[in-house]
Fold this sequence. Notes:
Strand content: under 5%
Amino acid sequence: MPVRATILGIVDPHAEELTPLSHPRLTAIGLLMWSFGAMISVLMVWCMRSAEVLRDIGVSAWMPSRFAWAGVGGLMISMIGAATLIRPHPGVTRREALRCSIGVSLYAALLFVYHAIYIGHDVISPSPIFAPGGDALGRSVLRVLMFLLVAGIVWGVRPAALGLAVRSVIVRTGRVDRQSLLAVLASLGIAALGDLLSIATHFSPVSIADIISIVSVVVISLGSVLFTVGMVNICIDTVRIYPVLVRPGVG
């Protein structure tokens, strides 16, 4: 038995149970594209909100449409990366591949909704957060739909992503969090709750509508921060897993 295999068996007894990747480097790059592309789209939203605040306080009059288009580009990168995760090795079952394919297909709808919110609405809105204009209800509905689509993508891609993650001994020994995607789903639920509260303000008495509106902004902000932190953790995890994927059997 080769020395390398003997050492590997001692360090990680489960390594030999893993099916070799068909295209290790392509899969590893795809995993990075999936996570970092999504991160770009999230960061662009924060850039747009920051530009909005600066505009409202009179520091800048710039309309951040370029951020919105960069976010669309990030989603396209993430979609391409996710497509490489559909069947990374022959051991993937048809059910798992179908589930991942469904997740990837949802990107088309997500791109449309993201464009509708951040380019179709926010660019012409007086102030998307504090003064969203006459179509505030439509924007909140679109945001809830966006969260549902992201949740569907996470649901579809999660088994494939975890299947790649467990190839690393740092995951199996608990040094990388397996629950990052579940944390992202939880944060999406919080943000969606905020938008549901925002929708409720349109059907509430005027006496309490303002209070609900303030609470909705706080809840949306909390969910957005938690979602961003979760995405940062996922990006860090994919960077740590990358060298394991390009060198099968070593992790």
